[in-house]
Amino acid sequence: MSVIVEQTIPWSPSELDLSNPKRWATLFPLLRPSVVPVTTSKGQTVLLDRALSNSPYIQIAAIGRSGNFSSKFLSDRHIAAIVTETSGAGILTAQDLRHTLEQNGIQVGQGLVVLRAAKDSKVSGPENGVVEVETEGELVFDHLLSLLEHATETARTSIHQTVELLKLFMKTAVTTKSEFHPSKKGENASIVHEIGHEEFEAATKALEKDLTHVLRSQVSQTGPVTYSVHYSDINGLSQLEVYILAYEISNYLETQNIRYRLSSSPLIGPDPLSARGWAISVCALPTHFLAPQSKPPNPLSKPTSPSSTPAKLAAAASASSTTTFDAAQIRHRITLGCNALIAEEPTITRYDTIVGDGDCGLTLRDGAQKVLSFVRDADLTQLPSVLAALVDDLEVTMGGTSGALYCIFLSAFANALRAEAQSGGGGVVSITYFPVLGAL
């Protein structure tokens, strides 16, 4: 299958305006519909996640610095309230946030932890079921967000255990940072660790130096512990480099027989052209606060089943079967879905101009129009082979990232229909799949 890649022109920083808290009050609810913006009496906007209204756990609120919307907010779904402080507005207290949550129907009966980016680090409370944590630096801020998400259920439901966990973290956590330097050392690039400037030979060696440094301070821990290890790429390492970081860190910990839980987040400095690198934060915690993560199975360690080879899957999509497909019902469902999508193209385009490059609506509309013209006269009683042929046309007609993704989906869909038909031994296939197909 061919994939057509179209150039995307990036928006300028002034057009994105991501340092403006009001911008995120518009963007974030589009990314996560359960989030609603609420303006407090002090003029600050709080983003509340209504999906957590009845959470059985201690609620988490995060207050970032003005103009700094942590990337962790985008991925983490355990944060009930998010504030990016607006300059000139009143400063929200932890009790202000508790009142805002309760006023908007979000239960805080188990307690509330308010995490605030600050110049110093300290833990205050609990007062009226509220604990306030001030952290210095985005690395520790992100590490704490991850730790509060992955803590044991006992810790997440007891405000007093949470306070004990937070105080232990603030007392014992250690961080380190390494950045690439523009000058060379010998014949290779160089890297600046917190403990020295040296030649960069391999990621394995560089990370081993950093991990040895931060783990040395944790050797005094007694009893069963889990090492909470959080790493961040600085100023945009490639995704491949981030995977290498994760692999090398986990591999080192395993060779040292250290039980751990790994988390990550990207860090972007004030100057996006500044040095790239990574940062690591480590804290050893008793296992009643944090359980170690299990090692994921390696899917490549098992031999591939002969029945699932690419050649046989491709042949299956075009093979005949005794299953009957209701052509009229299928065509009706697909037509309804495609027409609905075409009608919503302006709305989709408007959303994509806010969070993308503005071509999503047009790309999906073109794909829907192609599907309509293709199925108009097609023999839908042979649906798997029709879908396989449709993929070939959409690869050329639809284009864009969406086009490539839907082609992958349709190829798998055709094979799944064929497999179901063959395993079912005939009959009429349910039409419940086809609103999904029509949603192209």
Quick recap of the structure?
With 440 residues, this protein is an alpha/beta fold. The protein has 16 helices and 15 strands.
What does this protein look like?
The protein folds into 3 domains: 13-157, Rossmann fold (3-Layer(aba) Sandwich), CATH 3.40.50; 173-296, 2-Layer Sandwich (Hypothetical Protein Tm841, Chain: A,domain 3); 306-438, DhaL domain (Serine Threonine Protein Phosphatase 5, Tetratricopeptide repeat, Alpha Horseshoe). Helix content is 44%, strand content 21%. The chain starts with 12 loop residues before the first helix and ends with a helix. It is α/β, with parallel strands linked by helices and 440 residues long. The longest helix has 25 residues, at 400-424. It has a 7-stranded mixed β-sheet with strand order 1-2-4-3-5-7-6, sandwiched between helices. A 6-stranded mixed β-sheet has the order 10-9-8-13-11-12, sandwiched between helices. Strands 14-15 form a two-stranded parallel ribbon. Residues 328-440 form the DhaL domain.
List the helices and strands and how they pair.
Layout: H1 13-16, H2 21-31, E1 35-39, E2 45-49, E3 59-64, H3 71-75, E4 81-84, H4 94-103, E5 112-118, E6 122-127, E7 130-136, H5 138-150, H6 153-157, H7 159-172, E8 174-185, E9 188-193, E10 196-199, H8 203-216, E11 225-234, H9 239-255, E12 260-264, E13 277-286, H10 310-318, E14 323-324, H11 327-343, H12 345-355, H13 360-376, H14 383-397, H15 400-424, E15 427-428, H16 434-438
Parallel strand pairs: 3-4, 3-5, 5-7, 11-12, 14-15
Antiparallel strand pairs: 1-2, 2-4, 6-7, 8-9, 8-13, 9-10, 11-13
Helix pairs in contact: 8-9, 10-15, 11-13, 12-13, 13-14, 14-15
